[in-house]
Design goal:
- This protein is an all-alpha fold and about 200 residues long.
- It is built from 6 helices and no strands.
- The protein has one domain.
- It is globular, with a radius of gyration of 18 Å.
Length: about 200
Amino acid sequence: MGATHNTQAGPNVLESSGQAGIKTLLVWTGLSLLGFPLGGYLGYLVAGPVDGVGSALIGGAVTGAGIGLAQWVMLRRKLRIGLTWIIATSAGLAVGLAIGAAAVNYETTISQLALMGAISGGSVGIGQGLVMRGKFSLWWVWMVAMPALWALGWIATTAAGIGVENQFYVFGAVGAAVFGILSGLLLLAGLRREQTESA
């Protein structure tokens, strides 16, 4: 009877885990779709277009704070991460955008935005990864993945025909969806790894 009970419970446990994973991915992607465009809009409202170091630092900090806040809504529960996440994301984007935008001379071709995104994402990834350390087993993978994911976000936004020539601080909804899905899968992989190791 015990064996029969265990056999029947297995699929239910797997189904429950799968449903929880899908929910986590959908919520994270939804938060990305909220945080990136709104954060970018606030940054643009405060500092205008990214056309100099000053605007990159100020607008980047505001945009990063908006993105970090949206992500923190989930991470505070899933990983018990504190408000340092918001600070790290804000500072990371301010510094990364100031360097990245200057490196491409504030131009907005797809290749230049991808490079700017990689630099910005690298800076954000370092800050976020350090906050994740000790709380998320794949924190170092997160750090390594962020440059590529931010570059992909800009590529997707530019390919979708969004007016990137306006020198925005971050990619819009299309890029946010790409970023949200891919980074959400990475987050989910880490969470499942930790569940497996603690079982």
